TrEMBL record:
<keyword id="KW-0378">Hydrolase</keyword>
<dbReference type="InterPro" id="IPR024078">
    <property type="entry name" value="LmbE-like_dom_sf"/>
</dbReference>
<protein>
    <submittedName>
        <fullName>PIG-L deacetylase family protein</fullName>
        <ecNumber>3.5.1.-</ecNumber>
    </submittedName>
</protein>
<dbReference type="GO" id="GO:0016787">
    <property type="term" value="F:hydrolase activity"/>
</dbReference>
<dbReference type="Pfam" id="PF02585">
    <property type="entry name" value="PIG-L"/>
</dbReference>
<dbReference type="InterPro" id="IPR003737">
    <property type="entry name" value="GlcNAc_PI_deacetylase-related"/>
</dbReference>
Length: 313
């Protein structure tokens, strides 16, 4: 029997939407129509900006006609990008008070997640508790940008800490679609025009990537329900890396039980699953808690996007 299409959450005047944006423009590219739908219904919107997008050197070099970018230049660029976001929100009919900026390092959200002190997790938990959303738009776990995947894990861990279960909608910016997208995200012609106008506020990003960003903004907004895996689900890893890579591989695991753990592949708590794959034999995974794993290659590379990224087990 064919499965029925999942329904989009009902939006009313009581809806409280939190959009988690790792960088300025994520809120517009992937959620500009959703934000307008909530505002049109009389609901509340908050945009939680994790970074100012200041580690963005090539557009800055192009527009400022400079090669060397020091701390002062990065800070100025971050202020510019945050100002662009504020203007984009104005064009989406979102008040300036709806923006909450955490000021984490751009290309550093993963590092924030990996810190043993878990300060970033505590800060995010406090932000969620303060706004108390019933609808959260969060980057998809499979998004290939390391800031996006780490943001998903942090949100899931923070909600587990709070013991709250708002409707989670995953949005994808970098990578291929995962899951079944929800219907009903075309938007009215007026909303689509407002989204294009909001994107136009990002002059710093359109300078070198205008065609790509406009293409991303014009596609239908594809949100998918994020649902926790059931207790007792498989702990099998989705990867079967070549033994030639093992000396350079690292496995990271995050759960609600404590700080993120990291191991070289050969030292990770893994067992063969009898089918040529691997199972995670970690206490947090065995306990049935929310558990996320990331596979990475410990080699310097100019390529910023994840090859394997995060998965839930």
């Amino acid at each position: 029997m064919a499965l029925s299409a999942p329904a989009f959450p009902t939006i009313t005047a009581q809806t409280r939407l939190l959009v988690v944006a790792p960088h300025p423009d994520d809120e517009t590219l992937a959620n500009g129509l959703l934000i307008q739908r909530v505002r049109a219904a009389g609901g509340a919107v908050r945009v939680l900006l994790l970074t100012d997008g200041d580690n963005n050197p090539w557009p800055q070099r192009w527009l400022e006609r400079r090669w060397s970018i020091r701390a002062a230049e990065r800070e100025r660029w971050g202020r510019r990008r945050r100002a662009e976001l504020q203007e984009a929100l104005r064009r989406l009919d979102v008040p300036a008070t709806a923006l909450q900026s955490l000021g984490w390092p751009d290309m550093g959200v993963l590092d924030c997640l990996l810190q043993p002190a878990q300060a970033a997790l505590a800060e995010l938990t406090a932000a969620l508790a303060d706004f108390a959303p019933d609808l959260v738009a969060v980057p998809a776990l499979g998004d290939r940008h390391p800031d996006h995947g780490a943001a998903h894990v942090l949100v899931r861990l923070a909600l587990a800490r709070l013991g709250r279960s708002p409707v989670l909608l995953g949005y994808l910016v970098h990578g291929r679609d995962e899951g079944r997208p929800l219907p009903g995200q075309a938007g009215t012609p007026a909303q689509q025009a407002a989204k294009r106008q909001a994107l136009g506020a990002y002059a710093s990003q359109l300078a070198l990537s205008g065609g790509r960003l406009r293409q991303l903004a014009e596609r239908p907004e594809r949100h998918a329900h994020v649902e926790a895996m059931r207790s007792g689900s498989t702990r099998a890893l989705p990867w079967r890396p070549s033994p030639l890579l093992w000396p350079r591989l690292r496995l990271s695991a995050a759960s609600t039980c404590g700080p993120v753990q990291q191991w070289p592949w050969r030292a990770a708590p893994l067992r063969r699953d009898g089918r040529g794959g691997w199972r995670l034999d970690w206490s947090a995974a065995r306990a049935g808690d929310a558990c996320f794993v990331r596979l990475s290659l410990a080699l310097p590379s100019p390529w910023i996007f994840d090859h394997w990224g995060w998965r839930e087990v």
